[in-house]
Amino acid sequence: AMDWVISDVNSQYFAHVLIRLAGLSLDFRGILSFAGILFCIWPLVLTYKISSESPCAFPDLLHFSVLFVLLPFFINTSWPHYFICLPFVAVVAVIFDHNPDRKLLSYLALFLQSMACFALFGNATTYSGLGMLFWSNFLILLHYIFLLSSKLQK
Question: Residue 95 and residue 106: Cα distance in Å, rounded?
């Protein structure tokens, strides 16, 4: 089966990163996968509400960016090359947001995906094993959740 993917340090899938970091049994994959999908309902509902209630400039850019950062919650491999969009979606979040405090999430995400951060770990195995691309993605997703929530409150 696909059990080897769980322990592969390159898998940046939500459940696999948590299993590796917490040293959980492989039996937790189903529960964590389901929890990740449930978590994704929140940003999807926010994105839907924004698209139907308050049109903004370049809404497709904002909404597609949200979809990109949801991928590691749905695709159980989520290899590092799947995250090529991270710099782009982080910059989109920064451009659409006028709150400097929330922008810090995407700025930190940009650092986590940078070569400078990669160099701090010394090798790809440690960097990937700790799920640094997943965590960068997660910070951007949080930024989008806070951004979309604030747009609905206006």
Answer: 11
DSSP 21-86: HHT--GGGHHHHHHHHHHHHHHHHHHHHHHHHH---SSHHHHHHHHHHHHGGGT-S---GGGGTTH
Cβ contact 103:94 at 8 Å: yes
Considering the entire predicted model, what is its pTM? Answer: 0.93
The token duo for 12 is: 């940046």
Residue pLDDT, tens place only, 33-69 = 999 999 999 999 998 888 777 666 556 788 889 999 9
Closest C-alpha to 137, from 58, 96, 80, 97? 80
Distance CA 119, CA 116 (A): 5
> Token digits for 78?
């989520």
